[in-house]
Amino acid sequence: MKICIVTHKVIHTDGQGRVNYELVRYLLQQGHCVTLIATDVDLELAAKPNLVWNRVPIPAWVPSALLQNQVFALKARYILNQHANEFDIVHLNGCITYYSADVNSSHFVHSNWLKCAYHPAQLSNGLSSAYQWLYTAINAVWEQRSYARSQVVIAVSDFVKQSLVEDAKISAAKISVIPNGVDPNEFRPLQTGEENRLRRELNLSDAAFLIFFAGDIKLNRKNLDLVLRSLPHLDPNLHLVVAGVTEGSPYPAMAQALQLCDRVHFLGYRTDIPVLLRGADAFAFPSHYDPFSLAVVEALASGIPVITAPSVGASTLICSGENGFVLKSSNDLDGMIAILNRLERDRAVAKSIGSAGRVTATRLSWEAMASCYEAVYKELINQRGEVFADSVGTSRSRTI
After folding, report:
1. Range of the domain at 340
2. Counting C-beta atoms within 10 Å of the first and last residue's C-beta, which end of the chain has fewer, N or C?
3. Is 397 among the domain residues?
């Protein structure tokens, strides 16, 4: 098959970029020809012989993500209009360009996020909040049209499928759910005798209980607030480790105001998350809104107990108290305190729950995910009644 995938990034260390990285890697291994329309692509991947990268650079002078996305969308449409008859499948990732796709993957539903009580526009006034509202509102309209014009829509979780049906008004009949994957060899428990590099970096003994958090901490969507507010109610032996860019973040000041500077460790942006995760004792991620969250599955695979909220799509993987914990809501402070207390006091229970979580995560391999996408491609081609094996491709009209 000749497959064109349109996405901003195909990068191993990026969230959505990782999903497309693993998909492309699998497709190339299966002998398919892949064309990428993207701004950033992993250089090792880009060097593969059966991959073509149509790079879409975004000029540095273009201000704001809103305008940058429009520049990408128009350039990507131009490329697609020039080469449409070369592809068997065109696969978009959300509202990314003005083109009718065969397959469109939904990683985030803006129309659902817009109505969330924790959207910045719901929490405060001012230019920043107004921009956030405008950005989300434009994307909500755009995504509805983009998904409606796609033959098949892939939701990365049941949470996303429900949002697409209820908020984006997409027919459930055209939506398939394909969960994201994880590499259980990259994300794994700490082995016997292996050095705990996280404890070494922080200079903390084995007695300290390390709660890990990873994600964007500039806004409150990932809800670091709840984890920070739980610490004053917990034994001083519990420490919070935060991986995320601190520039422009309010949370270092919040930790200082709560007099927690000696118990909260801001690591900044890190690329060694797999190593850090396996050195932690628990992973707390009570996000107010997260359609899937690779971080949750990666923590499960790392063999540490995960604490999350129903507003996180990956929470459906967890049976609370067995292979992780799901709070009553993203504001469940009492629940967060109780769970962390229990895990810190009974390390054997924590280890058992972490082990059960890893069993759950290992069922979600990248290969399994990618093979599901491949099956969707093949089914669409079969439905068209066209034979594409080693073919040049057949031109077909699209609604632009």
Report:
1. 197-361
2. C
3. no
